[in-house]
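Practice problem: predict the structure.
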Amino acid sequence: MTRVRTLAGLLTIAAALATSFAHTAVAGSYDTISDVRIAMPDGVLLDSDEYVPTTGCPCPTILVQTPYRKSGAGVAEGNTIFPSNGYAMIVVDVRGTGSSEGSWDSFGPREQQDGVTLVQWAASRPFSNGVVGLAGVSYSAINQLLTVEQPGTSAVKAIFPIVPLSDAYRDVTWAGGNTDAGFIPLWLGLVNGLAMVPAQDAQSEPAIALNAESQHAMDIAAFGGPAVLDVTFGGYEMMLPSALVTFPEQAYDGPFYQERSTIRHIAQVRVPTFIVGGTYDIFQRGEPILFNALKLARKKKLLIGPWYHTTAGEGLTADDGSTPVYDTVGNLIPSLNNLQLAWFDRWLKGIDNGIERFPTVETYYLGADKWAPDKKYPAARTKYGSWYLSAAPGGGASLYSGSLAPAVDAGETTVTVPWIPLNGTCSRSTSQWTAGLVSGSSCENDARPTEALAATFTTPPFTAPYALSGPIDATIWISSTAADTQIIATLSDVDPSGASSQITAGTLVASLRSLNPAPCRSAVADCSVYARRRVTEPWHPYTHASQIALTPNVPTQLDIEIFPTSAVIQPGHSLRLTIATGDFPHETLTLSTLVNSAGGIDTLYLGPSHPSAIYVGAVSPSPAN
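Answer:
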């Protein structure tokens, strides 16, 4: 196993400062103690595995909380890079999952309090020196933030969340007011399926294991099943018998999602935090939001790569330092293992290794295929401007091919778009929202099958690199013959051959268009983000009370939140906006949305009275060229 013990410092490379990591082979051995049961205050026993270095302890302890089984079947998140390099590690099955007792309710209040107990347990173990770090990917990343947001976790000195979410409703569970059917069913099936695998200590502790398995089986009927049922009915949930409405208003944002959203209490995170995100991650929206909301000065970092949820870290420098990857000014981008070790060495062991001098933000720019360092996100030198949907002819074989122009058309134009809710299957969206599990198809890099059933608006080919950074607002004027509709706005990079590669997208159910105009100060919650007094990240309440049906055939403004990105449109390439009415299987309509939008014909409006446009942050000069 190889690791980073120190940063060698700052070296001069072509008159630029570059960070260099020293790699030292370590033959660290450790002992594994399986199935250590930890009692929670309510008597529920959580199962854990402990990994303890054979020398050097008491030592800092890394805590990982997972629903995917601590060992054996499933993900098995115990990363032995830690015990191999001087850290004890405890991996715990969260309540109601794996081999642990209790009922799972996905980041619920009880699980969050379990995190406090687990931190205190980790700090008090005989092999621990009382200093704790939190690590893990996805669910375990989210739990890191939810745990340190609780009082009683002062033993935690640093965290390293890899692909975490900020907002449980907006980031992933719902897509502009529609069910995220691409990921959520897969995820619920994974967690519940793994929970039904017999406990690891079933033979040695049959009574405890049987109790845990019985609780897991009952939990499917108490949590997962009712939640999905209530979601499916949407605004028609009241049609269900009252006995079946376990989670009222489950299709709308409210207390259930808010108490599971890390952004709601992000001000309580006061420990050094290194966030890893992905341009095509299912939490693409939330990772920059979390970074910007952290008030940690030089004790926070953001690394965003060209990754799906299941591919985070691919393509970086290898653990042993081979196949090095550098950014545009010569900074080495180490493996995630080495970055984690450097981060924890600094903040848990007090080693002055220079990790603070690693760029505050490292972002991979699509199109340029380069990493670029920065001090903030969106990138420095980002200026927002509008591209207006224009009736001037544009490229592409679609139902309507218009253009994107820097000025609004002089005259009014309307564009008809039919209701096609099953559009979008052959697109990068399908790969992204199944967490990258179906990546690799030709659809992934060419959106033309989706565009054929939509309206497209394309810029002329650029003559110089055009770099995008940050969130994007699409202001789209529409009407419908129905009381509701859904609009999907997708940005793509069109190469000279005509192939259209999706960069990012956003969506909105028209009846949920209500906007909270209050400007955000730090955390993006109950407020909208602005640049030059125009919205860049609109906040829709997504509540039943805020839902307003369309008046048929009356033009209505929608502000669609297109998720943040970093990309360069190269010379000879064009930027394309696609307006569609379906993004399946990413989105599935609730019953109420289906009934109110079925068969509708949508009309887009362009021109001075209805200036449909996208508001985009462009970086000049391009940081990745």
